[in-house]
Design goal:
138 residues; globular; Rossmann fold; alpha/beta
Length: 138
Amino acid sequence: MKISIIYYSMTGHSKKMANTISKELSVSSENIKTNPKLEDVDLLFIISGIYSDKSSPVLIEYVKGLTKRNVKKVALITSSGSGITKPIKVREILENNGIKVLKDEFLYAGGFMFFGGHPNKNDIMNATNFVKETLKSL
């Protein structure tokens, strides 16, 4: 199974989470700002944040270019100030492009800018467990 990890990070939280998960899976993580080319990906982890109750426009534009020809399934890992806000627009775009987005997603509290101490050890441990369980379920 080919697994890829991409992230978008304004504050460094998502980058930290992506790098931790990439080490756990022995897969590199790529910043979407570099416009990574994805081919024949069975499972893509998209790690990002919610900013002012929305996904980043940069992330939105990137996922618009993904299709079921290059990505089969997506798992979402998202931080937000509340820890409960979901990337609804990202899910909608991916599903409209024919990509299966897994029902379960991992949400965790971010912090405002560099304050708040997230992701903390508990967030990272829970995200790593989410990734492992996601892989087991496929």
